[in-house]
Amino acid sequence: MKLYSPLNQTGLLGNRRIALTLWFGLSFFAVIQQIWLHHINNFIVFRSVYFHLIQERNLYLFYPAEYQDVNLYGPLFGVLIAPFAWLPVNIGVFSWVMANVFFLYWAISRLPIPAFFQTVLIFLCSQELMNSSSWLQSNALICGCILLGYSFSRSGKERWALLFIMLATFIKLYGIIGLAFLPFSSNRVKFIFWGIFWMIILFLVPLLFTHWHFLIQSYGDWYTGLTNKELKNISLTNHNFYQDISVLGLIRRNFFNNLNDLYIIIPGILLYLSQFIHVKRYRDTAFQIYLLCSSLIFVVIFSTGSESSTYLIAVPGMVLWYFMQPFRKPISWFFSVAFLFTSFCYSDLLTPAFRTNFVIPYSLKAIFPTLIWMVILFQVHFSVASRDSRNLPWVTNSPT
């Protein structure tokens, strides 16, 4: 039986020039379109975090005279967005989006996979990147931080790994999943030290622009804002169908309207943590990549704050999982359907009527990432991951 990736290294997917054209070009046109249509509310929210920080105004209130919606990013985000807030608005929008695009590209280029697979990953994720870019979101930044957290952890560069993990955590909380890469570090004491170090530094960085009492107040306001948003996300009375694109939303909207999230979240966390019982495989690159895939998907499908654009974090996990599979037609067909449905279910490809009447209100985008996550759990626990991936020529042992 042939156990090589079915991807053709001389075909369209492996063409670096085409992949990069799609990667940068689609996002370029997406942000230009949003600027042209004046659909830049999200960026106005973002830049206002900086101005409200220096003015010591509550970062998490609704300011209808300035923008619609509310900020849900941590106080540190006010520092990160500052260079873009200083620019003229339209230039700031464009620069913010393209900076995210470049950052995720750099993070992918650091992954311990061959250049060909990096190219395919770039090619296949271009659609999701465009979706995130059209909403001017930070998902490329968060995904990039998680990928860099993994890459630097396994290569013994804990200082940088924890910088990016903590950076993402202090912005949007998703980055906390990067702490799961502790077992992949060759020096776990250093990993913990740098985690504490960067946590303290990044907690205090906003003091460059504000005072201690307002900073502490802002962290409390952040918690309150996230709690209120959680209640809004799970409410079906407001028809807020653009949030909660998750396992929780999938179950809530299709089966149990009054679902208690803890009944799903706690088993999900336990299942995720169960992968770490395989201590002897921590140095195995195949096992590490499976855990990376699991982490990227898990953090999205178990969050009620997940939107369609958030799947820019999960889809790379799906694609990386496929890279680890042997050449079997059923796997290729399954992945093809899973990828096309997940990446294009919000496009017109499956018709606007299907998107509006089924995909959005029933959180259907979460279906295939959830199925792949369950497959990963099975493969990890029953050693399928190691048995098949051992035959892939590019998988080697971790350098740590």
SSE map:
Blueprint: H1 16-36, H2 41-55, H3 76-80, H4 82-85, H5 89-109, H6 115-134, H7 139-154, H8 158-172, H9 188-204, H10 212-234, H11 247-254, H12 262-274, H13 285-301, H14 311-323, H15 329-344, H16 352-359, H17 367-381, H18 384-389
Report a brief summary of the structure.
The protein is mostly helical and 400 residues long. The chain folds into two domains: 14-234, no CATH class; 238-400, no CATH class. It has 18 helices and no strands.
Rg, Å, rounded: 21 Å
- What structural class do helix, strand and pairing data support? mainly alpha
Beta strand count: 0
User: Low-confidence stretches at least 5 residues in length (pLDDT < 50)?
Assistant: 1-5
Mean of pLDDT: 91
Number of helices: 18
Distance between the termini: 31 Å
Q: Main β-sheet, in a few words?
A: none
Classify the beta-strand content into a percent band. under 5%
> How many domain units?
2
Query: What is the N-to-C succession of helices and strands?
Result: HHHHHHHHHHHHHHHHHH
Shape: globular
Binned, the helix content reads 55-70%
Would you give an account of this structure?
With 400 residues, the protein is mainly alpha-helical. It has two domains: 14-234, no CATH class; 238-400, no CATH class. It has helices spanning 16-36, 41-55, 76-80, 82-85, 89-109, 115-134, 139-154, 158-172, 188-204, 212-234, 247-254, 262-274, 285-301, 311-323, 329-344, 352-359, 367-381, 384-389. Helix 5 (89-109) runs antiparallel to helix 6, helix 13 (285-301) runs antiparallel to helix 17 (367-381) and helix 14 packs antiparallel against helix 15. The protein is globular and about 60 Å long. Residues 1-5 have low confidence and may be disordered.
